[in-house]
Amino acid sequence: MWRAELGLLLRRVRIKALLGVLALVPIGVAVAVRVAGGGPDPGSGPRFLDQVSRNGVFAGLAALTVTVPFFLPLAVAVVAGDAVAGEANLGTLRYLLVRPYGRTRLLVAKGMAVIIFCLLAGLVVAVAGVLAGVALFPIGPVTTLSGTTLSLTAGIVRILGASLVVGASLLGLAAIGIFISTLTDAPVGAMAATAGVAVLSGVLDAVPPLHALHPWLLTHWWLSFGDLLRAPVLWTDILRNLGLQVVYIAVFASAAWARFSTKDVLA
Amino acid sequence: MTATATEPEMPLQDAPADLAIATKGLTKRLSGVAVVDGLDLAVPRGSVFGFLGPNGSGKTTTIRMLLGLIAPSAGEVRLLGQRLPSGGSAVLPDVGALVEGPAFYPWLSGRDNLARYDRVGRDSRRADRGARVDSALERVGLSAAAGKRYRAYSLGMRQRLGLAAALLRPRRLFVLDEPTNGMDPQGTREIRHLIRDLAAEGGTVFLSSHLLGEIEQVCTHAAIINLGRLLTQGPLHELQALGPVRLRVETDDVVGAAAVLQRLGLLDVAQRDGSVLAGLDGRVPEDVCRALVLDGIGVREFVQERPSLEDAFVSLTGEGFDVAR
Ligand SMILES: Nc1ncnc2c1ncn2[C@@H]1O[C@H](COP(=O)(O)OP(=O)(O)O)[C@@H](O)[C@H]1O
Ligand SMILES: [Mg+2]
Questions:
Q1: Spacing, Cα B90 to ligand 1 middle (Å)
Q2: Is residue B311 in some structural domain?
Q3: Which of A87, A162, B123, B133 lies in disulfide reach of B114, CB 3.0 to 4.6 Å?
Q4: How is residue B255 annotated by DSSP?
Q5: CA B62, CA B7: separation in Å to the nearest integer?
Q6: Residue A96's closest chain B neighbor by CA?
Q7: B57 plus B201 within the same structural domain
Q8: What's CA B74's distance to the chain center, in Å?
Q9: Cα angle at A260 between A259 and A263, to 5 degrees?
Q10: How far is CA A75 from the centre of its chain?
Q11: Given an 8 Å threshold on Cβ–Cβ distance, is A4 in contact with B64?
């Protein structure tokens, strides 16, 4: 059943355009580094960007670093916010329910489709980044953050793994988006509110006096995917990140279900 | 207030098995207003049941409750014997529905839209999906436009596609909310034929409308509501009998005929291009005709006009059928 939802999603021009933009950002970054003739000085600028001119595959990681704060959460907000509110807005929700779809089944299928979209979005960014890097720069064995060296293949596998971690870190936001989507018949409002949650979390994360709150913020561990490029892999923050996402998913998926299973569908 | 009607006085668990739809005290309050108020509907199996009321009288809200889209504030619903909303998953596969106009995905073709709705049901059978989609499209006359995007459909085509969705599988009950909305007279005629066919195939058709005349021609039964309350329900001929029987006399002596009818005490005697109209008010038409002839009035045509549902509505409410809330 989730395949039907995913198929519906991926056939939309809007979603194709969204994925296209996600692929264009890393390409743009790689091209900019090439044109600027080398990118930032080592150790400055967005993480991994300084490595791109020496080893093109790092463009995949730099692309993740660049898109995680803004582009990826925005894409997730668009898809998750639209999940239920979009159907309500079109009026198709009432026909799905009398089909009958089953409210829980519908919500689960939408959730699955959104999960796959999140993972796909991360992959698209990383793959586009790696391909752009390979096309524009020399490539070779990957130097980890710890100074050891990985073969090119092992390095690329780590990069793809990092993109999946990034995709998974977006799932808490996705759950929040789906919950908001059950509250309204206006998809644009749900999308904006979801994006607003991500922005708010990022702002709170940047306010030092709130440091006690920081580890619980949705976005706090989002850059932890870089720890996959250590030898050995430093799992602590990655697992904190994923654990926190599970908490957000549990809370907001339950709230979405509680809301949607009894909702009067007047749209 | 109602002279006729099969009003279920018994509790619903004892509702006769021959009812396709039964509601008891069905009530919905929206923003504090009882939009549907204590509705007791009894829709016999096999009937074509017209659910009539002016715009804003609560028809769509009632239909949403019948289909489990919204929960009643009070009262209960049985659809083909099953309690709604709890029994929805069991009974809804047997129900074809059109609620508050059609709704589809604008970026998909008509055919893909139907396939989408078909696919999401638990009972979905992939093997014959294509064939069922095509035959539903053909039945509503949309075969030629099946590959066009819904975005490009006209209002009438959209309504047809909505009906096609209801026809995707064999159904025991059709719940159609204003099925002729946005259709031209030709389309309206086709829909009436379709409804007759559905009933002839053994289904029950429950259709709402705010256009009384349109419905009167296909229904075997009807209910009339206003401001969320049931005014009356029952077999069509019983409802029509609620309205005043009118007499129309065509004659070359309009003035003389009007005088005779006035003398006999008929109601609302009026002259209109070559004929005289009057309310019979319980008088025997044979007597009236004899009186006219004995008075030397040449009668060209003498017609007792069956009252329409609209007449019934007006006599029940004392208002015209265009009141909105
Ligand atoms: N969400 C809502 N909140 C408050 N009132 C509503 C809502 N939806 C419909 N109504 C009111 O309920 C009444 C009945 O509406 P409806 O069932 O759509 O009537 P009909 O289908 O007979 O035209 C109308 O007066 C309408 O304004
Ligand atoms: Mg309506």
A1: 28
A2: no
A3: B133
A4: H
A5: 17
A6: B117
A7: yes
A8: 24
A9: 85
A10: 8
A11: no
